[in-house]
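Structural prep section.
Before we set up the soaks we want a predicted structure of the protein with NAP in place, mainly to decide which crystallisation condition to try first. Input record follows.
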Amino acid sequence: MRVFVTGAAGQLGSEMTRAFAGHDIIPGSRPDFDLTDERSVRRAIDAAEPDLIVHAAAYTDVDGCEREPERAYRVNALGTRFVAVTAHASGVPLVAVSTDYVFDGTKGEPYLEWDEPRPLSVYGRSKLAGEREALTLHDRSYVVRTSWVYSPQGRNFVRTMLRLAGERPTLTVVDDERGGPTLAADLADAIARLAERPVYGIYHFSNTGSCSRYELASRTIELAGLAASIVPVSTAEYLSRYPLPARRPADSTLRNVAGAALGIELPPWEDALRRCLQPSRR
Ligand SMILES: NC(=O)c1ccc[n+]([C@@H]2O[C@H](COP(=O)([O-])OP(=O)(O)OC[C@H]3O[C@@H](n4cnc5c(N)ncnc54)[C@H](OP(=O)(O)O)[C@@H]3O)[C@@H](O)[C@H]2O)c1
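Run finished without errors. Recording the tokens verbatim:
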């Protein structure tokens, strides 16, 4: 199989290459593949002659999207339209990756694939618009929502905690924001399995279980054997000290019903974190 991966240099994109070992991966990266340029999207995909497209590229900086809404919509919504239209014209299935931030976090229990989205931020709204582009323009689209993605490379919460713990004795982390941390490698494996099944539609793929940012930071520091102490604070208190432009959902934990029905489930988040931070103890 020939797999065209957008955002191939990102956290998820780079894991897709390993998850599709034995297949031909054609990476879509700037400058040859730019989501804001319809021609470059069409040319790159047409030239690749793929059997599958995994669309992992996005403008993922949540606060950056709030500051630059037009760029957010151009990349996350319009860019996904270009990918979906090209996939449709070539008759190639598309996996469009989306986010837990399409929800407002007030449900009080994990979100199902069919719950009504209500994004709080430009990032969430632009990703929801991208979901709709994929689902309405291409009948062979999977939309895979995920959450709190991290990997040993890239910009992510786990790596930020490790860096800060090396610089400071004490870290202040919010304890009233909950979600499902997701190891990019586990997400890539789940997507590769999903792509074998022509059951299109919306999926929720996160490592199983959920935690607060404070719990994730504490477990990260503990598994890495670092000495920093973590102080829990409320989001309101944190934001009064370090204001951020974008609002985050209080509890955006996703529940995987559709994938589980196909036998696709991700390992528990603590197991994934251990494999990421202590790879020699696998
Ligand atoms: N990170 C999370 O916590 C999280 C949570 C939920 C959902 N998601 C979703 O999961 C997917 C993968 O996220 P990730 O963490 O792997 O992202 P990432 O590491 O930030 O990588 C994003 C990739 O998108 C590329 N990109 C950005 N703008 C582009 C453009 N105009 N044209 C072409 N490529 C462009 C970037 O290319 P450059 O290298 O050139 O910048 C980068 O390779 C995204 O759809 C994201 O919305 C992520």
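Observations: Residues 7, 9-13, 29-30, 33-36, 56-60, 75, 97, 99-100, 127, 146-149, 154 surround NAP (CB under 6 Å).
Flagged for discussion at group meeting.
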